[in-house]
Amino acid sequence: MSWYVYILECANGSLYTGITNNLEKRFNAHKTGKGAWFTRVFGVKEILYTEPWADKSSAFKREREIKRWSRQQKIDLIEKKTRRSL
Question: pTM of this prediction?
Answer without folding.
Answer: 0.91
